[in-house]
Amino acid sequence: MSQIAYPLLVLVMTGSPGIAGLVGFIGTLPYILFQLPAGAVMDRVNRRRLMIACDIVRLVALGSIPLAARLGRLSIAQVTIVAFTEGTMFVFFRLGEVAAIRIVVPPEQHPAALSQNEARLRAATLLGNPIGGLLFDAGRTVPFLADALTYLASLVTLLLIRTPFEETRTQQRRNVLSEIKEGITWLWGQHYILIVNLAASATNGLIQVVILVVIVAERERGASGTLIGLILGGFGIGGLAGALSGGRIARRLRPNSVVLTTLWIWATLTAAVGVVSNPIVLGALLAIERRVTHRVWCTPARLAGRRPVDPVVRPEHGGVDRGGRHAGDRIADHCRSERPPRPSRTGGRVMVRIEPVHEATPELHAALSHLLPQLNSTLPVPDMERLRRLISDPAVTLLLARDGDAIVGTTTVIVYTTPYWIKARLDEVVVDAGARGKGVGEALVKAALDIGRERGAQVAELQSGRGEARKAAHRLYERLGFRIRESDVLRILL
Question: pTM of the predicted model, to two decimals?
Fold first, then answer.
C-alpha cells in the first residue's frame, strides 16, 4: 500500500515529478546494495531475531510519517529515509522468510506452504495498489499507517513462533567478502544468466518509470488516488496471469525465444501506454504488459521457492511492488534449470541446456533407454510407470541435458534429511558417448549441485564406479570439489 503512496505523497508535497522519481529511486537502492551482504548475514545470524528486528524498524519508520504529519514536521528528507529504510528491511526479511519455510514447515507440507506463500504475494500484488490509492484519498498518510499495522501483525506472529528458523550450523563459515566475490565470479562466468538478469533489471527499472509517468499524468488529469490505484492494479492482474501461464510457456519454448519475444512485446506496449488516456484501456495495457514481462522471469511453480535465490541473482527488487518482485525469485530458478555453459573458443563444446523433467513422455523413455545402458548395461531401463513415480516424488529432480532438441545426458538429484545433515545425492550421471568431453557432464553436475543448495542441502554425495572407464569422470568430479571417501557401503535388495 505504501508503494503507491510514496510518489503520490511526494507529488502533493512538492509538485515535482523529478523529486518523486528521485525518492522512488533511492527507495529501490537497497535491493541493489544489500542483496549480497543480506544473504551472507542471514546465513550467520538468528533469522527469527533479525526478522523481528526488521518488523520493528519498519513499524517505527512507517509510523513516523503520520506522526510527523500530525505534528506538522513531515519533510521530503524523512519520506526518503523511510523509503530507503523500508526497502533495506524488506531485503533482509524476504531472504529470511523464504529460507525459514523449509525449517518451520514439515517437509511433507513444503509444497502447500510455498503455494500459500505465493498466493499471498499474488493477493498483495492484486490488491495493494487499489487499496493504497483508496486509503490515500482518505488521508495522505493513511496508507503508511495501514502498512505499519501490517508490520505490527507480522511482528506478533513472529513472536508467537517458537521454532528456530535455521538448522544447527556445523560448518565453518568463510569471510563474507569471499562469499560475495565467489558469487559475482560465478555469475560473470554464466553469460546466459548474466544477460537475462541484466534484461530483468532493465525492465524492472523501466517499469518504475512507467508507473511514475502514469501517476503524474493521471494526477494532472485530476484522477483520484483510488482511480490511479485501480489503474496500477492492472499490474497485479497481469502478474497473476503471467504466473498462471508462464510455466506452460517456459516448457514449450526455448528460453531465448521467450526472452526476445517478450521484450519486443513489452517495448511496444510501453509505447502504447504513453499515448493512451482512457483509464480502462490504460489499466488493460498495464495488465497485458505485466503478463508478458512476467513470462520472461517465471518458472513452473514446482521449481519456484525451493530456496531463497542466491542474492547475486535476484534482479527482481526495484520492480513494481512487493508481490511483483517475487517474479525475480523465479528467474534464477528458470535460468539455472535451462542455462547453457559457455562454448569454448575452439567450438569444442556444445551449447547444452539443462532442464528438469516435468512429465513422463515417450521421448524421455526412449532417451533413457539409450543413455542408462551406457552407464550400467546390467540393470533394466525404468518403464513409464517407474518414470512417473520418479518424477512425481517431491524429493527427486530428474535433469536432462539437451543439445538442440537431442537429449545427450541425464542425472537424478535426491534431497533428503538425516538426523545430522540435509543431503543431496546425485545418481546416474550419464552423458551420451558422442557428447563426452564437451562440457555436458560438468553442466549436469553443476546444475544438480545448485538444486541441492537451493533445497538447503549441506553436503552432496555422488557414487561412481571405479576402473579405467571412469577415470575421466573422476577427474571431473574432483575438479568440481568432490573427494573420494574410504567407506564401506552395505546394500541389500528388498
Answer: 0.54
